[in-house]
Fold this sequence. Notes:
The structure holds two protein chains of two kinds. Chain A is 3% helix and 49% strand. Chain A contains one helix and eleven strands. In chain A, the strands form two sheets. In chain A, strands 2, 4, 5, 6, 9, 10 and 11 form a seven-stranded mixed beta sheet that branches. In chain A, strands 1-3-8-7 form a four-stranded antiparallel beta sheet, with no helix packed on it. Chain A starts with a strand and ends with a strand. Chain B is mainly beta. Chain B is 0% helix and 51% strand. Chain B has strands spanning 3-5, 10-14, 19-21, 24-26, 32-38, 44-50, 56-58, 64-68, 73-78, 87-94, 102-103, 107-112. In chain B, strands 2, 5, 6, 10, 11 and 12 form a six-stranded mixed beta sheet that branches. Chain B has a four-stranded antiparallel beta sheet with strand order 3-9-8-7, with no helix packed on it. Chain B has a two-stranded antiparallel ribbon with strand order 1-4. Chain A binds chain B through residues 4, 33, 35, 40-43, 45, 48, 55-56, 59, 91, 93, 98-111, and chain B through 4, 32, 34, 36, 41-46, 49, 51, 90, 92, 94-106.
Amino acid sequence: xxxxxxxxxxxxxxxxxxxxxxxxxxxxxxxxxxxxxxxxxxxxxxxxxxxxxxxxxxxxxxxxxxxxxxxxxxxxxxxxxxxxxxxxxxxxxxxxxxxxxxxxxxxxxxxxxxxxx
Amino acid sequence: xxxxxxxxxxxxxxxxxxxxxxxxxxxxxxxxxxxxxxxxxxxxxxxxxxxxxxxxxxxxxxxxxxxxxxxxxxxxxxxxxxxxxxxxxxxxxxxxxxxxxxxxxxxxxxxxx
Lengths: 117, 113
């Protein structure tokens, strides 16, 4: 597609429920990143995919967070048993190759605003 | 450890005035530096980037930034601000060998008529 897309744009859920956030990267981009943006904070790195594998999961805050990517394209970030502190904007980005190779810019989607009540 | 500092949380300028947003970084390797802008409800849009060469880089929307290695800074400037420039601005650093970008906490720009 023309850009990175994410769905849903907004998600309101109750504490303890599971949520799935979807990212569709730019066609042909092999690297995909998830970030979290909390109120008043910068972007916090969560996980990085190269193709379908995730060589860097260092940013996932707890075992309630997981992500997968299939077909080298769409990625899903899943948060189990959501907590109020999970409320944030979740941003997805992609690049033609891994950041570690090119050091180049990332292209961001519009984000999913998650609110946990 | 890598880090990016944007010391100004919020800046207010009058339309037509000049603008400078500060960014300082700490990075062991040769950094690649970026400025992104985020309008309300939007994703991050790349304004400009520095990889190497000329330390003054031009970006979109009339923005420019200057890399000063001696000061570990990459400040963003615009000679004359427009009301549409009101947004959140993020400085970021990356390099080959790092899997992700490191972002500052952002500077919110308000433009008054």
